[in-house]
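Subgroup meeting minutes
Present: P.N., E.W., G.H.
Scribe: E.W.

1. P.N. recapped why we're keeping a running log of single-chain structure predictions: easier to compare across weeks, and new members can see raw inputs and outputs side by side.
2. G.H. added today's entry (226 aa).
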Amino acid sequence: MSNRFRKATSKYVYGVLVGRITDGQENPHGNSPHYEILVDAAGTPYRIAVNIQSVEGSEVLAFFDQNYSNNTKLDLGSVTVGSHGFNALKDGPGGNGLDYLRDELFPLDKMAPIPPDGSGITLSALLDAQIERAKQDSSSVIVAVGDMFDDSQTTEEVGFALGRGVHDIHMMQGNRGHFAEDNRINGDGALFVRFSGGETIALFVRFLSQETNTDDHGNPKDVSDQ
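Output recorded in log:
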């Protein structure tokens, strides 16, 4: 059985974090490398952990948009000019969280494998460039959608030693096996950065092992159910 990045006893709250980027770096430690982003949300620090490789070795697929224009049901236009901090979102049927498979957030078939590192285009390099740009733009805002934690139960070494943050910045449905308990609808994760000129970048991530045809609980639909 694969080890989770955080202990099973960790408590999570799904929602959206809004704040200012202060730093970022790849954390290659452990069996599930992440890219970590430090955020200041009205004086409270958070650590955002973005998967750049799967625990189970499944290929990471991503859709990156350098000029994202979908306001989403989060109303990004209002969120990015509103107060900073973390706000909970309702997931599940009737929830107001994001859903890769139901919200038409982006063309799902355009998600492509992006290696965590190497000499070509990598997820770490993409994030490095946006983090550095945001650090130079005092009016930029990051919006991270995922599961908030507030403890120190990370099971692996992390680059930024901070027990408060947001992770699961990826699709949270279509899982089988060990991660099937994570399945839900209207509860997917994503990352957005709004710059001072109004340009918004967006990153959506899922794993190749995740199914893209799910029921009302986010569980994979079997062929016989279709």
